[in-house]
């Protein structure tokens, strides 16, 4: 196969390429960023950095995955995204879920502070990513990342399968994420929940009661009917997946959304996927980096720790990252800066190259 270059390998690991070059050099191998790494070096160095490499396609593409041992993995809450055709009731359903979650939760007080919310269902956490029409989800999927564990597909019972319904199914399938169907608006006079089921069969979304693998729940977001049922179904689906992560690893995850706040500076809402993020941690998110000044949970409270599947706001980044960017904690601020600057430079070069000014390969071979 083609193999990976030093630059691609470093990018996949989320480390500066100089770090990889240094490690290669210590093994007696001189490499530049654009050179392809020998397979055994890929494995050796990934292992050295606590990561594992596997070949994921017939074209022998490499995937670099974390190397957590089974006993390090602990159960984590499910991350859920609501999708569906416009006006089928995504926002209403999320609102109903939130208020239901508040009712179930002792702590209560779920706000819409950040682009994600945490709902307490029977004492268990469910993280909802508020992505109705949100770009983040697309951006993340485009990177082949699995940011969500379960897709709740909302289909209005009076309207049936529409173009964006199909699009959502395709997205979920491409990401390998199971679909729970919420057949909404069952309170409406023209509602026909069974027709929705029939229509979805054509797209491979088949109810369990018909021998398929998809769970369906009839709901009315407006009347708040079937919401508890839906939440229980989401938990059932999540249980099948046996979701786990290592909470003690170096924290990493994805940027859900980010903006420049007048008072607080760059603010990034991230989803922690692995490890535990804490104030004082040095973070790289895409092309930006910084030391975490404060973490703000979905309730708007400062928190001392964000664990796997927790959404949290990061304050303290030097610039605004992009939704879909990966974030990762670094032990050395120096390394964080190096990686962020490397990415900034690459982005600038790519931009220039796109305008026909310079060849990326030319430049990188000189670094
Ligand atoms: P979204 O575009 O998918 O986020 O849809 P919205 O949540 O904004 O809902 C679109 C419209 O459908 C709004 O006027 C809602 O009040 C209405 N709606 C949502 N859920 C229900 C429901 O369960 N029953 C009825 N009758 N109307 C609903
Ligand atoms: Mg909406």
UniProtKB/TrEMBL annotation:
Residues 78-226 are annotated as: G-domain. The keyword Zinc does not apply. GTP binds at residues 84-91, 130-134, 184-187. It is found in: Cytoplasm. One of the essential components for the initiation of protein synthesis. Protects formylmethionyl-tRNA from spontaneous hydrolysis and promotes its binding to the 30S ribosomal subunits. Also involved in the hydrolysis of GTP during the formation of the 70S ribosomal complex. Belongs to the TRAFAC class translation factor GTPase superfamily. Classic translation factor GTPase family. IF-2 subfamily. This is Translation initiation factor IF-2. It comes from Slackia heliotrinireducens (strain ATCC 29202 / DSM 20476 / NCTC 11029 / RHS 1). The lineage of its organism: Bacteria, Bacillati, Actinomycetota, Coriobacteriia, Eggerthellales. The chain holds residues 368 to 734 of 941 of the full protein.
